[in-house]
Amino acid sequence: MVSSGEDNQTERPRCRSLWCQIRSLAPPLIVEAGRRETAGPAVVPELAVSDIQASLSFWCDLLGFEVSYDRPEARFAYLVRGPLQAMLCERNGRREPSEMQHPFGRGINLQMTVGDIDPILKALHAADWPLYEQPGSAWYRVGDQELGQREFLVQDPDGYLIRFAEDLGTRPPSRS
After folding, report:
1. Is residue 170 pLDDT above 90, yes or no?
2. 60 close to 53: Cβ distance less than 8 angstroms
3. Residue 56 near residue 77 (C-beta atoms within 8 A)
4. Which of 63-67, 107-111, 156-160, 165-169 has the lowest mean pLDDT?
5. DSSP annotation string for 100-149
């Protein structure tokens, strides 16, 4: 496997102000047996937003994402936070299978696993951003064990529901 493109050791920009600092850094391109593909997750959500700057402020300044690359003329940004990735695109009438009404994310709940939810909670609290669901522990049965996570839910400026979770480990199933 051969990587091409820029050296990916370059530090990605942090959003430090109301408006995110944007710098173009494409994800690594993998070339293998004549195929070209971008390394990364197989599924990355692209969220239609009503105001790209307001969304960048929320996603970067409060949730800790960074802009990996952007296309300002298209009002588009590709965001990363460790292994988490999301795309934001200001609504432009394309790829809208039906009429968009706020909140845009009806029926979708994006779970994002992080090492510690407390820094995100502190940033949201400092910004007086309301939580959709307060932090709590949840245990989910998977096969012969339960997987635990500490989680909370928040909505972004366009109403997308985001569940941040940190791992609590496993335990034997509880009796019901």
Report:
1. yes
2. no
3. yes
4. 107-111
5. --SSTTTT-EEEEE-S-SHHHHHHHHHTTPPPSEEEEEEEEEETTEEEEE
pLDDT class of 68 with cuts at 50, 70, 90: very high
128 Cβ partners below 8 Å, 6+ apart? none
Question: CA 158, CA 150: separation in Å to the nearest integer?
Answer: 25
* Residue in this structure with the two tokens 């696993």, named with its chain if needed: 113
Nearest to 166 by CA among 125, 129, 135: 135
Structure tokens at 44: 């990355």
Neighbouring residues of 72: CB distance < 8 A, sequence distance ≥ 6: 22
Encoded tokens for 159: 């109403």
| Distance (Å, whole) CA 84 – CA 166 | 13
Read off the pLDDT of residues 113-139 as tens digits, 9 standing for 90 and up: 999 999 999 999 999 999 999 999 999
Phi, psi of 102 (to 5 degrees): -70, 140
Identify residue 91 by its one-letter amino acid code. R
Residues 6+ apart with CB under 8 A from 172: 144, 145, 146
User: Look-up: residue for tokens 């695109």?
Assistant: 89
| CB-CB neighbours of 82 under 10 Å | 12
Residue 173 has a CB neighbour count (10 Å cut-off) of: 13
